[in-house]
């Protein structure tokens, strides 16, 4: 049996643009990229989305706020103590972890809606290089935002439509 590979293509008008379009098949959606656009040389804190092809990983969701929807990605509900390590030099850099944690981290259980649906990517996973960027996700646009810190973000309804078309063989191409 042949694996059907799906691509989510993200395009922007320039390398420094924080707005773009995500295309999957014949559908196109407005999206946000990193505040400082995209780069082929991602580094922690540069506010840029990493150029490349990144396999979608696991979908994490807020069970208390996410409505039922279709998605073939492996999925797991978030817990209030879930975080993601962004501390360069830490042994858990660019990994999900339980809070509290001694080193710097990003909360995955957020008050805004941004991580009500959040998909991990293969960016900087194998090999995992210290300082080469962490927490590059596909997620919902945070209310009032016009950019991300390096992720790709869509409106909640658009992300649900995209996720319905994704599989374990879907790649995010920036």
- Rounded to an integer in angstroms, the radius of gyration calculated over CA atoms is 15 Å
Instruction: Characterize the largest beta sheet: strand count, sense, and whether it forms a barrel.
Output: 9 strands, mixed
Summarize model confidence as the mean pLDDT. Answer: 96
Secondary-structure element pattern, one letter each: EEEEEEEEEEEEEHE
Oligomer: single chain
Rounded to the nearest angstrom, the distance between the terminal CA atoms is 28 Å
Structural class computed from helices and strand pairing: mainly beta
Look at the structure and give the CATH class.
Answer: Mainly Beta
- Find the CATH topology: L,D-transpeptidase catalytic domain-like
In helices, the fraction of residues equals under 10%
Percent strand? 35-45%
Describe this structure as you would to a colleague.
The protein is mainly beta. It has one domain (6-173): Beta Barrel (L,D-transpeptidase catalytic domain-like). It is 5% helix and 35% strand. It is built from one helix and 14 strands; from the N terminus they run E-E-E-E-E-E-E-E-E-E-E-E-E-H-E. It has one helix spanning 156-164, and strands at residues 6-12, 19-24, 27-32, 38-39, 49-50, 53-61, 75-77, 82-85, 96-98, 105-107, 117-121, 137-140, 152-154, 170-173. Strands 1, 2, 3, 6, 7, 11, 12, 13 and 14 form a nine-stranded mixed β-sheet that branches. It has a three-stranded antiparallel β-sheet with strand order 9-8-10, with no helix packed on it. A two-stranded parallel ribbon has the order 4-5. The mean pLDDT is 96.
């Amino acid at each position: 049996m042949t694996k059907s590979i799906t691509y989510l293509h993200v395009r922007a008008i320039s390398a420094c643009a924080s707005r773009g379009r995500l295309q999957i098949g014949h559908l196109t959606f407005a999206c946000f990229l990193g505040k400082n656009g995209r780069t082929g040389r991602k580094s922690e804190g540069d506010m840029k989305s990493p150029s490349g092809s990144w396999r979608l990983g696991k979908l994490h969701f807020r069970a208390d706020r996410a409505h039922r929807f279709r998605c073939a990605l492996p999925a797991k509900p978030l817990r209030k103590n879930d975080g993601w390590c962004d501390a360069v030099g830490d042994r858990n850099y660019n990994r999900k972890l339980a809070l509290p944690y001694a080193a710097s981290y990003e909360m995955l259980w957020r008050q805004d809606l941004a991580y009500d649906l959040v998909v991990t990517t293969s960016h900087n996973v194998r090999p995992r290089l210290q300082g080469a960027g962490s927490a590059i996700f596909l997620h919902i646009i945070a209310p009032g935002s016009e950019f991300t810190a390096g992720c790709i973000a869509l409106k909640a309804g658009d992300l649900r439509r995209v996720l319905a078309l994704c599989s374990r063989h879907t790649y995010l191409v920036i």
